[in-house]
Amino acid sequence: MIYNIPYIAVAALVLIGLYALVFKRNLIKLVIGVVLIESGVNLFLIILGYREESIAPIYTSSPGGVMSFPVPQALTLTSIVIGVAVIALMLSLVIHIYRHYGTLDVRKVRRLKE
Amino acid sequence: MTEMSKIVRTITSITFPFAMIYGLYVIAHGHLTPGGGFQGGAVVASACAMILVAFGSKWTIDKIKEKKLSAFESLGAIGFIALALLGLVFGVAFFNNFLTGSNFLFGNIPPTGSVFADINTGGVLPLMNFAVGLKVIAGLFVIVLVMAYATTSFKGVKK
Amino acid sequence: MSTRNIAAVIVFSIVTVFFIFTALLMHSFGVPDESDMDDYIIENTQEETGANNGVTAVVFDYRGFDTLGEATVLFTAVAAVIMIFRRLKND
């Protein structure tokens, strides 16, 4: 049971992000919710590739011993850069929406005009 | 984003080269130590964003046009794909590591196990690190620069 | 509290219970089930790619196509951000 604490941390991060996505009405808070879910997924990938007492998979002056998995770390690296791109795109659209409507509340952004 | 005070600008001028050199070191040693093109590119882009915050977006966009940065980003992407295609030409497949063991640039093969760093290893990996590093530097900095400059001239909501 | 909010609370509670149970039922932290592919990569990284860093070898050599797609996503995002702010700058 005590070994499942990292998984519970992942569940907590994803649930906090889902809470922000479901119950909040501010666009910036929605972006923060998406970022939290993304962090939870990255943490999940990283802890799936960990072995007990393992070191990083790098041979330069390594102390020796079991190495953790390189593939989840590489895919997490890819995922982080994609996350940065997605955040930049979302924030650009939020700036655009604020310029047009003068508000960040999603309930007020419903006029079908220029 | 407007210009900050003289103290901030001076400290930024002093610390910017160190951050730049650290990022380039992380890119250049990507196949030996923790790091690589993405991480080093993020460090250099953070240094450039520090310049942007301290000196203001108008000053920065006068020095560096976003079209040139966009061209650099395309150059990084073209270099990456060209290296992958060279694997098809000189090797057997797309993304083939054709420089490993060729006694040419980056051609050495290290002995198996814990070794000391030899920068002349890795085949096409250091070249790909440089291409992706250039791409990430230009890409992240042009995103921050364009967003900061577009929000500078904001004068209330357009009706 | 409207009907919509009550429904959202109920669905969110169900999802919470599902997540917590899944987290408790996962395999133990640090003891993965399958490790054949990663063991192969760890053993053969140095002689196949010549790089000491296993993560860089995976990113650029073993799984180069993932990196190609990721570079495409970054390029598209930069193009979209520039396109969004191009109109606003001339106002």
Rg of chain A, Cα atoms, Å: 19 Å
Helix content of chain A: 55-70%
**CATH fold descriptor of chain A:** Helix Hairpins
Tell me the major beta sheet of chain B: none
| Radius of gyration over C-alpha positions of chain B, nearest whole angstrom | 20 Å
**Helical segment count of chain B:** 5
Which percent band covers the strand fraction of chain B?
under 5%
Low-pLDDT residue spans of chain A: none
Task: State the helix count of chain A.
Answer: 3
User: What is the total domain count of chain A?
Assistant: 1
The helix content of chain B, as a percent range, equals 55-70%
Give a quick account of the main beta sheet of chain A: strands, pairing sense, barrel closure: none
- By helix and strand content of chain A, what is the structural category? mainly alpha
Number of strands of chain A: 0
Gap between N and C termini of chain B, in Å? 23 Å
Task: Spell out the key features of this protein.
heterotrimer, A: 114 residues, Helix Hairpins, 64% helix, elongated, C: 91 residues, mainly alpha, 4 helices
Describe the structure.
The complex is a heterotrimer of chains A (114), B (159) and C (91). Chain A is 64% helix and 0% strand. With 114 residues, chain A is mostly helical. Chain A has a single domain (2-56, 64-101), classed as Orthogonal Bundle (Helix Hairpins). In chain A, helix 1 runs antiparallel to helix 2. Chain A is elongated, with a radius of gyration of 19 Å. Chain B is an all-alpha fold and 159 residues long. Chain B has one domain (6-150). Helix content of chain B is 63%, strand content 0%. Chain B has helices at 6-28, 37-55, 57-63, 66-90, 125-150. By secondary structure, chain C is mainly alpha-helical. Chain C has one domain. The model of chain C has no long low-confidence stretch (mean pLDDT 87). Chains A and C meet through helix 1 and helix 3 of A and helix 1, helix 2, helix 3 and helix 4 of C.
